[in-house]
Amino acid sequence: MVEHQFIQAHGIELAYDEFGDPAHPAMVLIMGMGTQMIAWPEAFCNGLAACGYRVIRFDNRDIGLSQKMEGVRAPSMLKALALSRLKLTVKAPYTLMDMAEDTVGLMGALGIKAAHLVGASMGGMIAQLVAAYHPQRVLSLTSIMSTSGCRTLPGPAREVALQLLRRPKSKDEQALLQHSMRTWRLIGSPAYQPSDEELTERLAASYQRSHYPAGYTRQAVAIAASGDRVEALKRITAPTLVIHGKEDLLVPVEGGIDTARLIPGARLELIEGMGHDLPRPLLPHFVELISTHAAKSIAQID
């Protein structure tokens, strides 16, 4: 188990850990909505480190062991989504751009001038914004199971949307784990479903490390309040790899296709049987795709 550390970045305290040689080029991993940094499997992080990178994963604000925005109220997810769909102002405690600045702040606090950014889902949105507005800080961009946020793109499958709006039957650990299990069975990769034992172990580790539903809600509101990134994506100059599962029921594959279409020169990798997760059998493939992409981007700079 890797020991986490804490650092002040962009005025807040972030929890993070590192893999690999600190002298190697940095690769920063940004996780998705309501999801802790441990969702980046250690095997994945060690694989990237073995390819010659200083790999850093961290908890976004309001989740995991990073600072919580306690005492700050946000509208309900339903209200925020409705306002966003109507293109009305969503009053949010913070936005995706604030979280992008957190990432830049983390890099600065760690003495990193520029890094390869890898973002999953909401983390992909954050990484896109860093690449668009801080181009000098980004060596390469990998956006996984994310989207441009364009309003004309399809949303989650109906059964997934309903599940996300349901509340657990009670607040005890077993009920919460069963609720999470149902969610992950719906959105996970149909061709790479983990066993009940493996999924339970993973979800229990996350729950026992930190359980903070208010942060999940505020991050969802941040997405709704931030609008689309269509124009921002057009200005990205970093070499970009877009990875998306063809069977993603939470962020449909059209989101990845649109992201790659908008970013100049982006490469699109669509994966059969992959949903909205990082299935363990695909981790070596992800490591190869991302490390090769990062190496090519450095070669282009040189």
Can you walk through the features of this model?
This protein has 302 residues and is of the alpha/beta class. The protein has one domain (5-155, 214-301): Alpha/Beta hydrolase fold, catalytic domain (Rossmann fold). The protein is 43% helix and 16% strand. It has helices at residues 42-50, 77-85, 96-109, 122-133, 158-165, 173-187, 196-209, 213-226, 230-234, 253-262, 283-301; strands spanning 5-9, 12-19, 26-30, 54-58, 115-120, 138-144, 240-245, 267-271. Strands 1-2-4-3-5-6-7-8 form an eight-stranded mixed beta sheet, with helices on both faces. Strand 3, helix 1 (42-50) and strand 4 form a beta-alpha-beta unit. The radius of gyration is 18 Å and the shape is globular.
Number of helices: 11
Instruction: Quickly give the CATH architecture.
Output: 3-Layer(aba) Sandwich
Helix content: 40-55%
Quote the beta fraction: 15-25%
Q: Total strand count, please? A: 8
Main structural class: alpha/beta
Measure the end-to-end span. Answer: 36 Å
In the sheet with the most strands, the strands line up as 1-2-4-3-5-6-7-8
Order of helices and strands: EEEHEHHEHEHHHHHEHEH
CATH topology: Rossmann fold
Which spans of ≥5 residues are poorly predicted at pLDDT below 50? none
CATH homolog superfamily: Alpha/Beta hydrolase fold, catalytic domain
On the 0 to 100 scale, the average pLDDT is 93
Q: What's this model, at a glance?
A:
The protein contains 11 helices and 8 strands. The chain is α/β, with parallel strands linked by helices and 302 residues long.
